[in-house]
Amino acid sequence: MGIVTRFAPSPTGYLHIGGARTALFNWLYARANGGKFLLRIEDTDRARSTDAATDAIFEGMRWLGLDWDGDAVSQFERRERHAEVAHAMLNTGHAYKCYATRAEIDAFRATDLGKHGSFQSPWRDADSATAPDAPYVIRLKAPREGTTSVEDQVQGTVTWKNATFDDMILLRSDAIPTYMLAVVVDDHDMGVTHVIRGDDHLINAGRQSLIYTAMGWKIPVFAHIPLIFGADGKKLSKRHGATGAQEYRAMGYLAEAMRNYLARLGWSHGNDELFSTDQAIEWFDLSGINKAPARFDFKKLDNVSKYHIENAPDEVLIAGIIDFIASQDREPMSEGDLGKLKQNLPILREKTKKLNDLLDKAQFLLASRPFIPDENEAKNINSVFICILKRLTPALATVRSWSKEDLETLFRNFAETENVGLGKIAQPMKVVLSGSTKAPSTFDMMVALGKEETLARMNDVVLRTASPE
RNA sequence: GGUCCCUUCGUCUAUCGGUUAGGACAUCUGGUUUUCAACCAGGAAAGAGGGGUUCAACUCCCCUAGGGACUACCA
Predict the structure, then answer these.
(1) What interface predicted TM-score (ipTM) does this complex get?
(2) CA distances (Å), origin A290, targets A22, A213, A226, A333
């Protein structure tokens, strides 16, 4: 039998990074086993669900490259079917109509019994002849005796006393199904074989298996993965930096790097740290998922990101850059600029952690001279260096060839005759050539720029500093 | 309060009864380098606590402590 997984977010905001990881695990598991990965939007809460949030989820999923099979399912649109199942359970005696009002439920909760246990409806065993002509909800007639167990693939066997389960509402008084009913019906109808979701649903697995059993349906395999926390061990929230998947896109991380980092958070394949998505698919298994919650660590993410920026295929990197620029609401890069970027990718990607850093380094190619360094960078170009620069210009004419090796040799010799360290010349030269120290290696830039342009930029600085206002 | 889950270096993790408890990030030291958000080498760094079971426990069981989830006509 083919494996079917699903990701089922509720559209109340954006794609949360924790949700993104849940989606990734489901996606990885399906792809690893030649199965299907489905997407369902849990929008039965009409008050909180918005189309904008649904679009945000789609966008986040697409950015992460988590493609789903078929069309996304709207849970709300399947409400007729959910109601149908609720009524089927009514007919088989697994559910009952409860006419208790809000006031009655509140009153029950105020009692000693109500403070410690869940609501016990007086309608559970009532004679239907006594039913009033009033709105009602359909409640599950949960078993009061015995236990219910779930064989969780991550948490192991988990058992509850049935007495701890309440008669949960299946169909609200406005005939809209609750989440608890809808998930079960949808997962069953969609043929979901493996439910991989957040730890916060562990108890729901017990409650939901009651519905499966009542309907005589096969219970799917459950795997409840631990949540992601912030660096301080608290639930991941805004003050930890970023909670939305898209924010990571805007920060300049490659989707491939996010997949790598997120997969490694709570899942492991021996000591493998840096890997491609294809490798993750090959290796992924539920048995590799850790039971304990993990903390989000930006330092490590940056390290993973650096690896992927340095090693991604050219076309992937370029696509990532184009996507990053779009995420900033910036003008798309011109074909010409893109061409320059492509040609110089090796020197731009080296030692680069994020895409915005890469773009910073690319300024020497993209911006036009003369460069005006900011106050801080300008400190590199002092009067002593200006004098050196003036002597360097004629010296440069003697270079054997305009290659990295020869330029470096020339610089070393020149530095020796000037009696200064190479760094004293090469570092300020970075600023001369690019207006910043956030730039590729000096010699790489010189080669990329060519002799004429290099000399012109050097001259810019000499001219600018020759006539101080 | 009740039910359930979790607990190995600062962080992410390996280990599936017998290891000097391994790796990665971060950190520290030294080296190197255009004095770097680079690189190389080395160091420090962990089984929450207490009971069992066993020849042997990080690994299995129990208790305690700490953390978390759920406890809605939310999902």
Answers:
(1) 0.95
(2) 13, 29, 8, 42
Picking from A369, A368, A370, A388, the residue whose alpha carbon sits closest to that of residue A428 is A388
Cβ atoms of A352 and A309 within 8 Å: the answer is: yes
pLDDT for A1 equals: 61
Cα(A31)–Cα(A94) distance, rounded to whole angstroms? 37
Tokens describing residue A337? 């600029």
Helices assigned H by DSSP within A46-101: 51-63, 79-91
With cut-offs at 50, 70 and 90, classify the pLDDT of residue A82. very high
Q: Which residue is nearest to nucleotide B16 (CA to C1')?
A: A287
Decide: CB of A118 under 7 A of nucleic strand B: yes
Tell me the mean pLDDT in the region A377-400: 89
| DSSP states of A17-34 | HHHHHHHHHHHHHHHHTT
**Does the pLDDT value for residue A11 go beyond 60?**
yes
Instruction: Indicate if CB(A283) is under 7 A from strand B.
Output: no
Residue A151: CB atoms within 10 A of its CB come to 12
Chain B bases near protein Cβ (<7 Å): 1-8, 10-15, 22-26, 33-39, 67-75
Q: Closest nucleotide (CA of A268 to C1')?
A: B13
Q: Is A145 left (phi over 0), alpha (psi -120 to 50) or beta?
A: beta
Between residues A290 and A377, which one has the greater pLDDT? Answer: A290
| Nucleotide lying nearest to A350, CA to C1' measure | B38
Residues counted in chain A: 469
Cis status of the peptide bond prior to A143, with omega within 30 of 0: no
Cβ A269 to strand B below 7 Å? no
What is the nearest nucleotide to A43, using C1' and CA?
B75
DSSP string, A90-135: HHTTSEEEE---HHHHHHHHHSHHHHHS----TTTT--GGG--SS-
Q: Locate tokens 């410690």: which residue?
A: A116
Percent with pLDDT over 70 in chain A:
99
Predicted TM-score (pTM) above 0.90: yes
Question: What are A71's two structure tokens?
Answer: 């069309």
Q: Give one DSSP letter per residue of A121-173, joined into a string.
A: -TTTT--GGG--SS--EEEE----SSEEEEEETTTEEEEEEGGGS---EEE-T
Taking the CA atoms of residue A123, residue A124, residue A127 and residue A131 in that order, the dihedral angle to the nearest 10 degrees is: 30
Pairing type for strands A228-229 and A221-225 reads: unpaired
